Amino acid sequence: MKKKLLSVMLASAMLTGTLAGCGAGGSDASQTPAQTGDGESANADAGTEAAAPEAGGDEGTVLNIWCWNDEFQSRFNDYYPDVESVSDDKSTTTLKDGITVKWTINPTTDNNYQNKLDEALMAQESAAADDKIDIFLLEADYALKYVGADVDVTVPLSELGITADDLADQYQYTKDIVSDVNGEQRATSWQAAPGLFAYRRSIAKDVLGTDDPEQVQAALADWDKFNDVAAKAKEKGYYMLSGYQDSFRTFSNNVEKPWVEGTTVTVDPNIMSWIEQTKEFTDNGYNHKSTLWSDTWAQDQGADGQVFGFFYSTWGINFTLVGNAGEAGFGDWAVCEGPQPYYWGGTWVAAARGTDNPTLVKDVMLKLTCSKDIMKSMTENQDIQDYTNTVSGMQEIASDPNFKSEFLGGQNHIALFSEVAPTIDMSNVSPYDQGCNEQIQNAFGDYFDGNIDIDTAKVNFETAIKELYPELTEVVWP
Questions:
Q1: What distance in Å separates the CA atoms of residue 101 and residue 289, rounded to the nearest whole number?
Q2: Beta strands 62-67; 100-105: pairing state
Q3: Were 314 and a residue from 130, 167, 307, 387 both cysteine, which residue would form a disulfide, CB within 3.0 to 4.6 Å?
Q4: What whole-number distance in Å separates Cα of residue 89 and Cα of residue 70?
């Protein structure tokens, strides 16, 4: 019965992952997977339900970790203190006690990661001990799909022996988003992902006469001011944004209600504000008509780009933007808060129900997501500067006069992130967020380009969302 429920719940939540935020590390295109798993190691043959061993008892010799890119793999290999060696092809990691960590990395393109993960989780009970998934990674947009108490594919942290005291220094939203209806936290993260507005200093000087972050923030402090600067940038020959989806997360993270309640989809007024702004920007030439992760979007961040700025969260600045900007971009970028606080993405570590390595999984979670010293070292690494999930640690770095980002011209961006992170509110998330976010962006592309009217775009969204989620019966517009 449990397996049937799992199958229904996971199947009903399968989504198309083309526009989702990619969590730390950016899009799959910017990552080189160390290993692409085929998702077939856990074969679904008839068998009895296998209970996870008690923490502290006999454990397996293989720790299986499933990811969609190599970002967590690099954090594990570089910062987990019990790592002994890494294979030349990076497909396995050997720990000091001889345990082998096997990495299965399935890129998210066309929902590949979730589809293969779902197949393996449904076969978890009958899989051989060393083939069972022990840890798998989750993104914010679909975390609720896997942390539900009814589905029960993730182990509550309390069952692993991780206490509220262990998690006390983490940002509250990173705990809320992966807690079930009973208040049990079922995953944990080493990072938080507040967002800022990253702008090109040279363009800001030309448009506003200054590149000072405080003065630029004053000019962009609300959406009316932001739109006024877009007009000024156009007069100077620049685009304010690259594409249609650039500002979406800033609007969607400030909605008043969840996307779905019961069987009703509610399009929030803030989503309509994004539609109105994007149509205005497209018609007036304030954006470059690119799409997220496209070649044009990436090139707009390069040396020859003519775009004022980009909405980016922590991982986006330190990975995607730095990579797209190249060496010529170092010193020519800065960040400010922008018109509204928001977050984008993030990655959570979950223990798979049925793991035969609960004690080791607990240790990995404690050291990589609860150790202030380890997480601070990730932030202080100039090549990473990840915004990590330690409130006190980030406050310390925010007030450190010696901490700076070379890419951002010596700016201490952690100070700005630390102001945004505590404001993140996850109360309006729903299990349907990824699908609704993607489909609303897809449906209105032709409207932005003038190929259809707004009523047709609305109908296209309604059709797409009901096909994706047949259980949803109504779409309500503001």
A1: 43
A2: parallel
A3: 387
A4: 12
What type of residue sits at position 218?
A
Asked if residues 372 and 392 have their Cβ atoms less than 8 Å apart, the reply is yes
Q: Which amino acid is at 104?
A: T
**Axis-axis angle for helices 454-468, 433-443 (nearest 10):** 150
Amino acid at 61: T
Q: Which of 91, 108, 97, 80 is nearest to 14 (CA)?
A: 108
Three-class SS of residue 346? coil
Backbone angles phi, psi at 169, to 5 degrees: -90, 5
Q: Are 360 and 59 in contact (CB under 8 A)?
A: yes
CA–CA separation, 270 and 114 (whole Å): 29
Q: Please state whether beta strands 241-243 and 287-290 pair in parallel, antiparallel, or not at all (unpaired).
A: parallel
Which segments in the chain show pLDDT lower than 70?
Answer: 1-57
What pLDDT is recorded for position 112? Answer: 96
pLDDT score recorded for residue 382: 84
The neighbouring-strand residues paired with 265 are 260, 475
Which of 285, 216, 287 lies closest to 246 in space, CA to CA? 287
- Please tell me the total number of residues recorded for the chain in this structure: 478
Tokens standing for residue 264:
């009703």
CA distance 154 to 341: 31
Q: What is the largest CA-CA distance in the chain?
A: 70
Q: How many CB atoms lie within 10 A of CB 224?
A: 8
- Residues sharing a CB contact under 8 Å with residue 152, sequence separation 6 or more, in sequence order: 2, 6, 353
**Contacts (Cβ under 8 Å, ≥6 apart) of 235:** none
- CA-CA distance, 363 to 85, in Å (whole number)? 18
Rounded Cα distance between 111 and 6, Å, is 18
DSSP state of 94: E
Q: CA 223 from chain center: how many Å?
A: 24
Judge residue 243's burial from the number of C-beta atoms within 10 Å of its C-beta, 0-12 exposed, 13-18 middle, 19 or more buried: buried
Separation of alpha carbons 102 and 424, rounded Å? 34
Torsion of CA 100, 106, 107, 109, to 10 degrees: -170
Buried-exposed string 54-70: b where 16+ CB fall within 10 A, e elsewhere: ebeeebbebbbbbbbbb
How remote is the C-alpha of 436 from its chain's centroid?
16
Q: 290: helix, coil or strand?
A: strand
In the block, residue with structure tokens 């399935």: 106
Q: pLDDT of 103-138, one tens digit each?
A: 999 999 999 999 999 999 999 999 999 999 999 999
CA distances to 217, 302, 384, 417 from 381, rounded to whole Å, are 27, 24, 5, 17
